[in-house]
Task: inverse folding
């Protein structure tokens, strides 16, 4: 990460980036930072964004081979293409040649590509290409052209330091005990921690610091239980029950922030558990593996039951949609209640 930070600071960039790992928050944060540095806002002539199944090598070739239009660079941002996964490494292999690697070797110097990938096979040939460990006759990687940056879950002191620094960046303080308490309640996922910290900062208002009592007030109780019932109803495709539970929370003036963050947190946990379905590991071990706080690990069995009612792709879609809506509430002022209702509608839609 040091090299990437240095490039963002000096504005001297490698042409091809692979951002990967299990910390999605940082992958998205840095891919956005690269996009902002390597292209201008709204410049669709020189910036192409491809996600999931729409990622296509021919589209990259058609776009990347052209000269920049009234600019000095063209950027392709490819998100979650699957091209670096165990199965995806075989995609676009024609007559034994990797067309993706071949294309990168033939693109003009004015074209830059950023791959933001969650699912990467670290033993695969494309990962090896970015790490400089592969020999190829198509194109010899030069250190200044390729940069591999891996983002892993923060744990222990690294995680508590991140919490303290985030709070400090807003001009507030947080007690040491509160810093330790928050991951126990919320888990180690940075998206969820940021959502809870933003709520806490709004909750304390003009007060200088966040205390354990504030965390107790924000992360506890009724909303979490009711949202669990909503998620269970959604998994059973019981639209009437899910929406009735939601309307009751709104009628009782429960915080929409709490509802939204709990939806995100619970669906994120269910999505992670889904990835271990059929693994044979004890549920207690899986609860720890997916980062469930110790205080709620007893719920892991019922969460896995909910996970079995969803397709993996649907959960993947919902977790991404939650992130997108949460970001829009902060960047373009999307009404939080509208965001919450849009998410529920998407969850209930086949």
Result:
């Amino acid at each position: 990460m040091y090299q990437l930070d240095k490039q963002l600071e000096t504005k001297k960039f490698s042409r091809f980036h692979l951002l990967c790992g299990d910390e999605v928050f940082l992958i998205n944060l840095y891919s956005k930072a690269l996009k902002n540095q390597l292209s201008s806002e709204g410049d669709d002539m020189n910036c192409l964004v491809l996600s999931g199944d729409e990622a296509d090598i021919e589209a990259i070739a058609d776009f990347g081979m052209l000269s920049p239009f009234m600019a000095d660079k063209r950027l392709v941002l490819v998100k979650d293409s699957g091209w670096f996964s165990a199965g995806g490494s075989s995609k676009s292999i024609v007559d034994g040649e990797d067309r993706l690697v071949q294309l990168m070797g033939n693109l003009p110097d004015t074209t830059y590509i950023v791959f933001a990938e969650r699912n990467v096979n670290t033993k695969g040939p494309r990962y090896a290409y970015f790490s400089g460990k592969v020999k190829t006759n198509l194109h010899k990687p030069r250190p200044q052209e390729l940069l591999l940056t891996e983002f892993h879950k923060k744990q222990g002191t690294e995680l508590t330091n991140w919490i303290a620094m985030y709070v400090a960046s807003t001009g507030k303080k947080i007690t040491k005990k509160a810093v330790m308490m928050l991951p126990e309640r919320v888990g180690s996922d940075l998206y969820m921690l940021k959502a809870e910290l933003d709520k806490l900062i709004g909750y304390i208002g003009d007060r200088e610091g966040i205390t354990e009592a504030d965390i107790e007030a924000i992360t506890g109780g009724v909303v979490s239980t009711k949202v669990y019932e909503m998620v269970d109803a959604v998994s059973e495709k019981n639209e009437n029950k899910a929406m009735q539970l939601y309307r009751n929370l709104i009628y009782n003036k429960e915080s929409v922030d709490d509802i939204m963050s709990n939806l995100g947190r619970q669906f994120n946990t269910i999505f992670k558990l889904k990835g271990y379905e059929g693994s044979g590991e004890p549920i207690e071990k899986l609860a720890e593996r997916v980062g469930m706080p110790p205080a709620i690990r007893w719920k892991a069995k019922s969460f896995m039951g909910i996970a079995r009612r969803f397709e993996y792709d649907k959960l993947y879609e919902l977790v991404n949609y939650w992130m997108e809506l949460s970001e829009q509430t902060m960047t373009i002022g999307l009404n939080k209640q509208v965001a919450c209702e849009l998410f529920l509608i998407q969850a209930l839609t086949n």
